[in-house]
Amino acid sequence: MLSRRLLRIKVMQVLYAFFQHDNNDMQLSEKELFHSIHKAYELYHYLMLLIIDIRDYAADKIEMDKNKMRPTDYDLNPSERFINNRVLLQLEQNKNFKKFLNNYKFSWVNYPELVKKIFVEVYESEEFNKYAKGKEPGYKEDKQIVIDIFTNYIANNEELFLSLEEQSIYWNDDVEFIISMINRSLGGFKEDQSELEPLASLYKNDDDIEFVKTLFRKTIINHDSNVALISKYTKNWEIERIAFMDMLLMEMALVEAVEMDFIPTRVTLNEYIEISKYYSTERSSVFINGILDKTFTSLKAENKIVKKGRGLIGEDKNLN
């Protein structure tokens, strides 16, 4: 399932557009939000198809090398461990994976050079050669080489980012999160698993859907009151001089802290600090940390932040 951090980022992106463009149609923006989230789930399947295509390119290359005018011994007797990789075979035969691809008609056929480039980089790597030419790999080694390819060669490929940007505006910031999601899925594969085994779901459960809705709607509804609250703890700053993204992230954090009694305030604080490092200014994380720390402490003292559930009751009023 998509991580809560990615869900927060998706909410942040749609809220940013909502406020910046003076859009007052909350229902339409919420529809856009859930469309954006589903696009991330499409990317999950699309990138898994990419490694299948890389495997298929490797198989085609082996056949072409065998048919050279003057093939070498290695051309005639190549390692076929990668093209027979059991994890990739399981993924390719997975009924849920095939159904999703069939419904959305995904294909990398228009990007043959990208597939070739990634394969060449993988093929020339030390870890791939150790895998391909070493002792007969077990299922564990089959799984690890696939995870390594995603982590080291797909996740960092600039041409991949450009191709994804061409195909969808929703995929620009998703690759790192989606590859992490893919690696978790592949890490859970078992040698004897059925082709009917489900892959990751879009959401962990209905709580994630409610999390998105509440965070989005309440940030809009409570915008004025939360801006006023933040201004109380930014006395040395004119509210208009605070970076808009900083304000938005703090507003979202306030909503999460007050409205969601199942999420520890420390988790909320850390999440928005981390998001600010990627999406706001260089000093934003320190600024946001300081303001939210004071605001949360005050709201706890007023019993406006109350956490429930195992491990949350009696949460420290002082965040420091």
Explained architecture:
With 320 residues, this protein is mainly alpha-helical. It has two domains: 4-187, no CATH class; 222-301, N-utilizing Substance Protein B Homolog, Chain A (Orthogonal Bundle), CATH 1.10.940.10. It is built from 15 helices and no strands. The protein has helices spanning 4-20, 26-66, 73-76, 86-93, 95-104, 112-123, 126-133, 139-154, 158-167, 175-187, 206-221, 223-232, 244-259, 265-279, 284-301. It is elongated and about 80 Å long. The model has no long low-confidence stretch (mean pLDDT 91).
Number of domains: 2
Q: Which residues form runs of ≥5 with pLDDT under 50?
A: none
Helix content: 55-70%
Supply the helix-strand structural class.
mainly alpha
Query: Helical region count?
Result: 15
The rounded Rg comes to 24 Å
| Count of distinct strands | 0
* Overall pLDDT metric: 91
Beta fraction = under 5%
Shape estimate:
elongated
Give a short account of the largest sheet: none
N- to C-terminal separation? 32 Å
Order of helices and strands: HHHHHHHHHHHHHHH
Topology (SSEs and partners):
Elements: H1 4-20, H2 26-66, H3 73-76, H4 86-93, H5 95-104, H6 112-123, H7 126-133, H8 139-154, H9 158-167, H10 175-187, H11 206-221, H12 223-232, H13 244-259, H14 265-279, H15 284-301
